[in-house]
Each structure stands twice: as structure tokens, then as C-alpha cells.
User: Fold these one by one.
Assistant:
Number 1:
Amino acid sequence: MSIRAQRNLRWAPACAGLWLAAATAGAHAAEPVSGAPCALAAQIVGDWTDKPIEGRPWVVVDGGSMDQGVSVGGFLEGWRRVAPSRTLVKAFLARPKGGAVSECPDLPGRFARTDMSFGADAADKVTHKNGQWTPAYSATILSISLPVVSQDGRYALVSIGLACGPLCGNGSTLLYRREADGRWNPVGDGAQWIS
């Protein structure tokens, strides 16, 4: 296990394992992803971090581990609005477990903002003080899985989570649809966790 993976495991339990996927991000030897998944990840990060929550800066990390070991049928239970196709769910559940931060190397470079940082090191700084968990984080943490785009390029699934403290956060898997103008819009969601 890499040093980065060990470091990620230290702070992952704070939000019911949301970031466990980051610990295995280096476990596969796939090439970095580009194109639609990374473009959608950049749009989502931009949309979600548009305004600070309670004036705190943002930390963006890999996410998307809450669906590990889930069946397609179990994954589809409880969806609101539009549900994803079984084919897209199968592809999403079979994806490499690295998140958008590690799989889209140009993602941090798309945001020239002083109120945003990326990765496990940045998250560690806001979740710990003097080696101890902090009751409230000094930044809002956004975790994002690598989006999985349907074969026709019209739909995508992505897991997203927000955390502001050890017992302050939530996460969902969202279904996005690409509109005629190229912009992705959320059309369905399945809640995964809340703390």
C-alpha cells in the first residue's frame, strides 16, 4: 500500500468510509482518463464549489466507495426522479475505484482559486489538528468519483459527498444527462449516506 493510500485511510472513517476509494486509487494501472468523464467532473466541481458553505474554503478529494459490493438491483432501490439504466449501473459498479482527482490529472489546474485545494494532503490538514480529529473541519470537503458515461454519451453516473465534520455530511450518486448545448444536468439521485 502506498504512503498516499495509508494517509487516506487515516481520515477516511470520518464520514462512514466515503473516501475509501482514494486508498485504492493507485491499485490499478489504467492510463489517466480524459474527455467526457473529466469534463463532467470539472463541471460538477465548479457547480458545487460556486459558493462557500459557512464561509469555509473547499478541499476536493477522490470519492465513491459506498457502492462497493452492491448489486445492480440494490443500487437501483430508492432512486428519485429518473433512474439510470441497468447497463450504466453495471459499468459504474465495475469502474476502477480511483476518483476524479486522481484519474483526471488536469482537474486541479482548471481552477485558479485561492479558496480551493485538492487531494488527501489538503484533506488531512482540515480534518486533523496535532494528530487528533477536529470536531469541525476548517474547510468543506467535496468528494467526487470518476463519472462513468453511458455508451451513447447522453448519461453519466457519479458519486458525490460533502463533509464539514466527522458527523456533518452526506453523499449521493447522481445521474446526469447531457443536454443539446453540451451541459450536463442532474436528472436523478440515489442517497447513499448521511452523518
Note: Helices lie at 3-11, 20-23, 36-48, 72-76, 86-93, 100-103, 120-127.
Number 2:
Amino acid sequence: MANGKKLADKGKKITPEAAKEIANTKDISSVVVELPQPLRTHPNLRLYLSASSPHPIDSYGCTVCHRGSGESVGFVTSDHSPEAFHREIMEEAVSEVEKFEKSELATEKTREEWHEKYHWHKQHHWDYPMLPVSATEASCLQCHRDSLELIREAAPTLYKGWKLIEDRGCYACHKIQGWRETRKPGPALTSIGAKLTPEFVSAWVENPKAFRPTTRMPQIFHLENSRASRRRSRPRSRKCAP
């Protein structure tokens, strides 16, 4: 163990045999094994997987956090989701718009490579595809809906998004799981089609403050990080009257 831990601390690669020896020890949470996937050590073992962590693998497994088909042992049938792994494409982006567009290009390149190498395709009859690495935090909400402060550092993106819903009051009009029993200060959108015209809804969503200056609803369209093609094709509405 001492030799294995020493190698890990120095950032040197460890053989599969050494990794197996390390995995059989009690102090696995302090070891980082640099091996190619699928042999690489899971990150943050003090929090995940090890016997002393709050989420021991024997009790939690994998799909509770990562989703996918837990009974499958194949790359395709386990239902992986492609992601923007090609960071060299992402590094070319400067503005928020470019970052979004480059992310889509990088994801598409990953999808093409998977199709060529693994004959990858979406599993149409499986409802829970494996979450991309960037979205894994979303699974924390299954158990920590009422204890988000506890996972604030471990799931910063999830925490920030949840606080935005709370601060902006999105649940006031939109049906969001976890907020359905909360008092609604705004109108329900269930029968909005019977009350408002399509033109008004378009203008309202495009620029909420043009209709109600005091609203906390954020503007989504015509911003720097909006999809460029949508910004060019979507006409700006001037009037906001029902």
C-alpha cells in the first residue's frame, strides 16, 4: 500500500495489478490511480464509492447517479450520452455564443467518433440515458432536495441553478417538481392558450420587463449567450398587449 500510495502521490501511472492491490486496502480514499478508462479511479473517493464514504458502492451502485442501463455491459446498450470531450474545439471560442456553438460542434464530433468506433446510436427504448459528465450533479437532487446546503461545494452547478429558481420565483407560474406544494404568487400557465394571443406570449417571453418592469422573470432571448441563428431569425416584437 505504501508503494502504491507513493506512486499515486507522485502522479505516476500504476499497473492494473498495483491498482487491484490498492483497491483491497482500507485507505483507498487517499489514492488517485491514473489509468485509462475504464480502469481509472473514480474521482473524490472520500465522497463516493469507498466503504467510509457517505455513498458506498455496495449500497448505492452506479446508475442511481449516472443513470443508463445498469444491467448492460456494452458501450452502446448501456446508453452513453455524447459530450463535448474535444476541448481543443472549445478553446477556440471567445464569446458566450461561440462557446455554445463550439460545444455543439465538439459534441457532434464525439457522436461521429462513437458511431464509427462503437456503432453507437441512441437506445430508443430506454428512458434513462446515461447523464453526460457535466450533468451528473443533477442526480444529487434525488436525495438532497431538502439539504442543498450540505452539497453546495460538491454540486455547485446544481446549487446555483436551484437557487436561481428560488430567487427568480420560476415555480410561481411553471410546474417544477419539488415546488408544487409551495405557495404560488403568480398565475398558472395551464390554460394560457385560452387567455392570451400567440403574439402577446411571444413578446412577453422575449422581453418580460417590457410588459411588467418589476418582474423577476429573466430575459432569455437576444442575449450574448443565445444561439446566434435564433437571434438572427427571431424578429424583435415591439408591442406587448394581450
Note: Confidence is low (pLDDT under 50) at residues 1-11, 228-235.
Number 3:
Amino acid sequence: MTRHVNGAGRIRHDLMPTLDAYFDLIGVHLSGRGPWRVARCPFHVGRGRTLHVHVATQMFRCEVCPMKGTGVLRFHAAWINGSIHDAARDLGALEAEPRRLSRCEVARSTTDSDEPTAGGTR
């Protein structure tokens, strides 16, 4: 995985899976009924179902390790040991921002347009 220091781009939350759908993708099986579901935490070795997930609010917390947060981005960032932008890029939810011109480029482009073209017209 390539890490980028400056994660430029806009995160599109509408393109991301829900936390329970994401868990299905990575093989974490949620069980139980009601708003809180339980699963084995993939961040540590253990047989118990210590990871609790609230399906409506997308909150998650583990009773054993310090893993806790809200949303698929935070969980995936921890899973890949990367930033939020790295996680959004991995999930296909990072929209690139248009490149902004610097002052020098803006000044250069305005002076270039003042020069006559090859046909003699502007």
C-alpha cells in the first residue's frame, strides 16, 4: 500500500459500504439481534466475541483491545494501519479535487492570453 502524506480529495460517504456490509467483505461475522451486534475482534487473538457493533449508529468497540470508533472509515483505517484518506482511497470513496493554480500560474496564464496568436488575432 502506498501512503500519501497529503491526502488531497473529498471523501464521498455515499460510495462507502455500511459497517455490517464491510464486515461481511472482510470475513467478520456479526451475530445477535437488536441494535448491538457482537463479533470476534480481528485486531487481537481470542475466541470470545468481544467486538460490539451498533448497526444503526455504526459505532464499534472492543472489550479487550483499545479498538473503538464510529464508521467504516475509522475501522478500515485501523485495519490497514493508515489514515482516513488512505481508507477512503482503498474503499473507492475518495474523489479527487481539481488542482488549484498557484499565483504564478494564474499570472502566467493571464499574460500568455494577452500575446497575439500565430494568425495575428487574439
Note: The longest helix spans residues 103-114.
